[in-house]
Amino acid sequence: MSYHRAAPALAALITVVVTVVGCERGSSTGPGNPSEGVTRAGCPADLAKARSAVRQAEKVDVSWNGPTTGPAALPGRTIVYVAQTMTNPGVAGVAKGLREAARVIGWKVRVIDGQGTPAGIQAALSEAVGIRPSGIVLGGFDPNATSSQLARADAARIPLIGWHAVGSPGPSRHPKLFTNVTTRVGDVAEISADWIIARSGGRAGVVVFTDASIPFARKKSQLIEKQLATCADVRLLATENIPIPDASSRTPQEVSSLLSRFGSRWTYSVAINDLYFADAAPALREAGREGSGPPFNIGAGDGDPSAFQRITSGQFQAATVPEPLTEQGWQIVDEFNRAFAGEPASGYVAPVHVATAANSGGATSWDPPGYREGYRKIWGR
């Protein structure tokens, strides 16, 4: 065969080889460059959108975009924080921020732990109403399960503020809340799913962990599943419903079962709370899985210190969508101050953020800059 006759065939072969190599490199989703390269996934448009959204959410050089005006600090108030369970790191993190802000504004805070059971939460809220405080925080539980206690609080004219109490941020009429402090559940769910789509190059086998007993959590997991479904090559393998109070006892056995059922097809996980991955780690380790390997896990909420530690050390968690827990504790104090002054809620909702080993800098929480100074200026403190 002459050179001139062979050249077109050789050029075609080179083109095929380059194309295949390019696709394989793009499909590789290692920690170094999870959201770059060419992909053969069946959702190119959604993959491009996911990569863009994740890049934006991973930024850490953000400015405070919360309220800049409001009433000056009112003195002598007492706040009771009723916690769904203080074993929930998100609930505990907000309590920490609430106490910090209360010291600055000059208020007292008392925390009552509902122990994670309906009876315990009802008893805790009954105790809180009996104290007759200036305000009560509903920390991470469904207010509809405490209707009689809420009616007593309303009769006593005690303002209520929720944290993750209902599905949306802002004031609520049913149940009656001055405001509900949270990120937008839809934003958290979407960016969590987008991270999986982006990091996997649009090809993943996913397990979702949720707590269907909490309406907020149930809605979040449903929205995650909806967003994952936008990419044809992302497969939802299973949704595991494990109540948060039972996570330490049930998660390890469920993870072992999932490994047996799906094996190497299970490449990603997303949970409505980071704590599931602390409980999953022993079972994954026992099965011989590497801490920095699949399944790659993202927590769709909270971002407690242990989650950041797992992410930094590459131990069975790759990312989290952290709530700015301390900031939200400060926001709750500011919202109560507005309620006491007869002013409306601020309407502020913190934007979503994705924390990874690459952008967290060894931190143990997402603590965005500027809010302490902003609230101090408003309060005159």
UniProtKB/TrEMBL annotation:
Q: Does the keyword Signal apply?
A: yes
For this entry, the protein name equals Substrate-binding domain-containing protein
Q: Where in the cell is it found?
A: Cell envelope
Q: Span of the secretion signal?
A: none
A matching Pfam family: Peripla_BP_4
What's the family? Belongs to the bacterial solute-binding protein 2 family.
Q: What UniProt keywords apply to this chain's record, in alphabetical order?
A: Signal
Periplasmic binding protein domain segment(s)? 79-342
Q: Which SUPFAM superfamilies match?
A: Periplasmic binding protein-like I (SSF53822)
KW Signal (keyword) present? yes
